[in-house]
Amino acid sequence: MREALFYKKLDNNRVQCLLCPHECVLQQDSTGVCRARRNTGGCLYSLNYSCVTSVALDPIEKKPLYHFRPGSLILSAGTFGCNFKCSWCQNWTIAHSDAKTMELKPAGLAEMARQYASRGSIGVAYTYNEPSIWYEFIYDTARLIKEQGLVNVMVTNGFINREPLEQLLPYIDAMNIDVKAFTEEFYSKYCKGTLSSVMDTVESAARSCHVEITTLVIPGLNDSPEEIESLASWLASINPDIVLHLSRFFPGYKINDIMPTPRETLENARNSALLHLRHVYLGNI
Fold it and tell me: Positive or negative, the Cα torsion across 45, 48, 32, 214?
């Protein structure tokens, strides 16, 4: 374990985590919503600091990032835990279950990235589960990666407080941020989070690095042309060249009563988004 950044001590050995907008208040020996931060002895510790569940060499387009170093490979790594509770989670075995991990310290991942650079890898992507809750590990690793002239990429739900985000952004070259839907009701009911916090992250990140957005289009939940157009209009107000990926939903994890997104629904969503954005792609089709 490593002592966490961004928390404050309270009375009676309690602590409050300040990494994400949940701002969990933790009693002695309790763990946050993310399952990755625990109060031990009145101090907050990261439980996943050097714990890696998956490492792979992926095409950059798989993140998905289509307009950032296209045709490149990138070393991808993930840990366990998540600060959202999405019922359709595609990586639930590491986000919400007890996945097996191996120890890999920042210097070890940085050395691996250097070795893979000879095979065309451009750096490291922090992905698979929610990387923001791996904050201390990413902060330490990302600086080593930059020293080697390589890039850092995050694939994230964007649910992070502004201060930790702004301290990390100078070391991040690109982000793919999930915007799960464009209503607070959806975020509250299906993600246990807030849309406004994610919007703040998108706006801050877009001022600092390359940003692309992914929205999983779920039939009957967030697939109306009006909602997609509102999302696209807001993104265009930041930058009409922001890339939007509209991804096809497939049932899984806790949702098995919704059919896969029809191709027609995705095409209609893309047409709505193209009223405002220049680059809209369909995924998982």
Answer: positive
Multiple choice CATH, 51-283, 3.20.20.70, 3.40.50.11600, 3.50.50.60, 2.30.130.10: 3.20.20.70
The token duo for 95 is: 């986000």
pLDDT of 234-257, one tens digit each? Answer: 999 999 999 999 999 998 888 888
* 147, pLDDT greater than 80: yes
Helix/strand/coil (H/E/C) assignment for every residue in the chain:
CEECCCEEECCCCCEEECCCCCCCEECCCCECCCCCEEEECCEEEECCCCEECEEEEEEHHHCCCCCCCCCCEEEEEECCCCCCCCCCCCCHHHHCCCCCCEECCHHHHHHHHHHHHHHCEEEEEECCCCHHHHHHHHHHHHHHHHHCCCEEEEEECCCCCHHHHHHHHHHCCEEEEECCCCCHHHHHHHHCCCHHHHHHHHHHHHCCCEEEEEEEECCCCCCCHHHHHHHHHHHHHHCCCCEEEEEECCCECCECCCCCCCHHHHHHHHHHHCCCCCCEEEECC
**pLDDT higher than 90, residue 215:** yes
Q: Cα torsion at 153, 56, 74, 214 (round to 10°)?
A: -50
First to last CA, the chain: 41
**What is the average per-residue pLDDT within 74-93?**
90
